[in-house]
Write the structure tokens for this entry.
Amino acid sequence: MTVLIKKDENLQIEKMELGSFGTNSYIIIAQNSQDAVLIDAPDEANKILDRLKGINLRYILLTHNHMDHIGALSLLKQKLKIPLATHPFDAQNLSCSTDILLADGDTISFGNLELKVIHTPGHTPGSLCFLLGNYLFSGDTIFPGGPGKTWSPSDFEKIIESIKNKIFVLPEDTKIYPGHGDSTLIKEEKEKFEIFSSKPHDPNIYGDVTWLS
């Protein structure tokens, strides 16, 4: 199912929940040109291709290289023949080659819109978020109620640093659209994180952590 998130005279944002893991894929369209980008290619390539008819897709952007975010990637690349962009740390282990290597602070322009690239390591070394105005597409870096899953204490430290230094510095009314599940606001997550930070924790904490558990 495709959900319309935002539509005005400048842009249109849609969310598709795809695959057995319920992974979110986002289509952002510049209204002035119908140029667009696709964020993540989870699964069910034919559903994505059907929705993209009549749209001038310019780029496929990956938040990270986990299988539940790239299941449709090979077929989309084969059919659409457009550039794939991701961080160099996550460009390996993909089913097709990366065309554009992204770094923190880069921008991606399409139509009259511009996305800012934010490198947020922790869930994976090359995890990226994409910022458009007050919309943040966060992949698996942050969700409503907690950070993305980590596989070691050092990864947990990295994801917390990414969230504090790269995400929580954005305006509090910025809306977060994660790689799974529903949206949230930076203000809400900052308040929950303050409660989390005020309590003692195992120094070796990692895994599936929630702010209020």
In short: The radius of gyration is 17 Å. The mean pLDDT is 97. The longest strand covers residues 11-18. The chain has five helices and 15 strands.
